[in-house]
Amino acid sequence: MPFRCTPPPKDPVRTLAHAPWKLAVPAFQVSPRTWYVSGQSWVGAYLIDTGDGCILLDTAIPESLYLLVDAVQQTGHKMSDIKMILLSHAHFDHIGGAAALHEITGAPLYMSREDAKFLAECPGETLVLDADSHVQELTVDRFYDDDTPVCLGDIAIRTLLTPGHTIGCTSFFWQEKNPVTGETYNVAMHGGVGANTMNDKYYATSACLTPDLRDRFFADAPKVSAIPVDIALPSHPNQIEILDKAGTYTHQSQPYLDSTVWADFIKERVRQVRALME
Fold it and tell me: Which CATH class is domain 24-277?
């Protein structure tokens, strides 16, 4: 699967807030143990079956929550199977459904300590970003420690603080074994690469984010892109186009398996951020 990015949907928040079914997509498998389950085409959420319950990565916004619940059930799992909810960063489009999902599942909410602070101190730049979405306040239960993986069943997710898009943006890395071929794959999701918060216009009005975060993003890019990743998953599905192959996964075909995608993806996001500086 060579790297390809595509434009995002037009007016996604307004559409999801008022007519979410227009962006609805069924759940689909992306790797031996992981499914795309946000239920919509703007922002991603992933369900990982650990063999001892499931881990959910991100939650999208509350207005599309019913699509996520339906998508989880489409995979053959129940909401009660979710034992941990890992949040990539403190923007409403990734954490908007977290409070409700915590109540539904009882699963603890994880976030970086840095973005939990960002969330508490700057709600205008985290939760209250769009009048069309009505995000519930949430309480973070546990913080990431990059030296200690998040473990459940036989899955160990290594977290990596990757600031830039936010102060505490976190990326996730784990391994999965193909039950048919016996091959082991390195799977990853970058926590957030949006250039919309890494430009001088944004910094001029921000109370919390500063250009040194952009500098950190540039400085970290070579080492992040050098991490071996066989299956690269986007936090927004247009950033690494995956919807075009939805529903085609089999353990034998592996349509999302390509070890070149991760580095090309990071390179392209760096290019986009630098372009806004010119």
Answer: alpha beta
> Could you state, in order of their start, the residue ranges of all structural domains in the chain?
24-277
Choose among 45, 15, 42, 19: nearest CA to 30.
45
- Provide the b/e sequence for 44-78 (b: ≥16 CB within 10 Å): bbbbbbbeebbbbbbbbbbbbbebbbebbeebebe
Q: Which of 258, 175, 249 is nearest to 26 (CA)?
A: 249
Q: Output the CA torsion sign for 14, 18, 21, 27.
A: positive
Per DSSP, the residues of 96-157 read TTHHHHHHHH-PPEEE-HHHHHHHHH-GGGTT-S-TT--PPP----EE-BTTB-EEETTEEE
Name the residue among 67, 9, 26, 2 with its Cα closest to residue 238.
Answer: 9
pLDDT digits (tens, 9 = 90+) for 188-207: 999 999 999 999 999 999 99
Of 187, 184, 183, the closest CA to residue 172 belongs to: 187
Give the separation between CA 210 and CA 149, rounded to whole angstroms.
29
- Quote the pLDDT of residue 129: 77
Rounded Cα distance between 250 and 256, Å, is: 10
- Alpha carbon 37 to its chain's center: 11
